[in-house]
Amino acid sequence: MPLLEIFRLTHRFAGLCAVSDFNFSIEPHELVGVIGPNGAGKTTVFNLITGVYKASEGSIKLNDRELVGLTPHQITRSGIARTFQNIRIFKELSVLDNVRIAHYGQIAYTPAEALLHIGRFRAEEKRITNLSLDLLAIFKLDDSANEKAKNLPYGLQRRLEIARALATRPALLLLDEPAAGMNPNEIIQLMEFIRWIRQTFSVTIILIEHQMRLVMGICERLVVLDFGATIAAGLPSEIQKNPKVMEAYLGVEVAS
Amino acid sequence: MTKLSAAYFALLKHWQTLTGYKYFWPVFLIAGLAFCAAASASEFLDLYLQLILIYVGINIILTVSLNLINGYMGEFSVGHAGFMAVGAYVASLLTVHVFPPGAVNILFPLAILAGGVGAALIGFLVAIPSFKTRGDYLAIVTLAFCMIVKSVLENIDAVGGPRGLLGMEKLTTLPWVFFWTVLSVWVIRNLVYSNFGRGVLSIREDEIASDLMSVNTRQVKIIAFVVSSFFAGIAGGLFAHALQFINPRMFDILKSTDILIMVYLGGIASISGSIIGAVIYTILLEILRPLGIWRMVLMPLMLVLLMIYRPRGIMGLREARLFIPLRDLVTEKLWRQKKKEAPDASA
Ligand SMILES: Nc1ncnc2c1ncn2[C@@H]1O[C@H](COP(=O)(O)OP(=O)(O)O)[C@@H](O)[C@H]1O
Ligand SMILES: [Mg+2]
User: Fold this and answer.
1) A129 at the B interface (CB within 8 A)?
2) CB of A168 within 8 A of CB of A82?
3) pTM value?
């Protein structure tokens, strides 16, 4: 059974059809790339999956459960986490708090217990703090745990954003152009890193990428979007040869 | 469990040795309460000074509670005086008309509490427009709220209409103000350093990202508004029974502005800042009273200068260590220490 199944998804912004009749499905533990030129609708698909926008038409099912109509935090708690094309960490907060916040849905104490610091409060805070510190240690961010997130160098901010997403315990991880602003050398490291994340946290990953290099290297399957519709899908080697893709995607890239 | 979390537990056990503030709070609370009780019983402090201290306490409650919304959450509410009015009227109606005259003294805390609960119920309703992400939206809604409260009160004859409400006994004593001030500071501090408080902060930072990181932003906003308006109501009840007279005009937008100035003077998102802001502003107002109308020039001028040289307020986005729970202090110490042990690890 597919983990995520998208059926005839359509989304319009005041007349502009950003996603049209998009179909997609992904099996557990797959790593699938979504590529396409700028403005193709890739980020909009992520925003629809995670509930930032409500789809105009169509359905999105996670483990056969309909997601359209749920709020973003409900969708996150049902097992989908994401990063952003433009980093959106909580800049003025500590690195530790960035990760602790992502545990929001996993904390068992009530507001009353929080107001009085009684009951399960202490034990739960200890548990969440330890989980967060351990996660930061895995991502080699523990040295900066009490640093403000905005003081981290760019690469570490991207890493923190992934750590924060994983703190929500997702089954499906959505990465929106994680290689943005990286040089070829860093991209190779990032490819290793993404493989390692999939292994370590046993997550299914959908990877949006603008640059072909990254997706060709690690994705098992590719979907190519242009003007909000799928123009090709298949193995990376097939996609590379597909004339439609060359025209829509590579054509643009060569020209620019 | 990693070595680090083991070390964390070990440090937690020995927190006493890590903090120099071990005795501060017990001493402060006992001495403070004793001082307040002695002052109000023997009047070694003249009544005018006592009244100023009472206003300091009330203003601390108002500032800390408004800071939760305007500082920690980053919204802009101008309706705090409206919540204060609800608390003032509910508490006063209870002590003047409902409670048996003989038992008013004993039932006074109940009246204050009821004022807080009344304001909290209204706060729950005001939380709903804050669900909209647009920032200026809430300022307009709370402005309207403040005006509605005032005109509703002016049009109900049973609460005295525009003339207001008289006949409260002087029940707001220094020890009571001390008690409620400590309680509100403690509860709001607790909230800030909890899961929900981190939710409040993350809404200020990036509301959509916060929701996407599993934070139930609506729940967080409701909690913040209910707690904030609850304590505004408490302050209102205390205020009414200190002045022994209230009318709707006391709780207009100018009163909200006073509280806003204290928040931005002391510093956004800071408990210690709120206290500093409330103390400085209340005392300055009294000192400058002889200046009469010039006060109205001097105070805003001070605010302007502050906005230029210290735009986040005196303690903006910072906190005195005394208000940070040991748990969080210990974490910080742990990481500092770890950095010292392996200086090149972070390089
Ligand atoms: N919030 C929005 N309002 C209006 N138009 C939008 C909005 N978000 C995206 N679009 C438009 O939808 C199209 C797809 O955008 P996007 O999904 O960001 O593309 P990609 O991520 O593939 O570069 C673009 O034409 C973009 O201008
Ligand atoms: Mg995009």
Assistant:
1) yes
2) no
3) 0.91
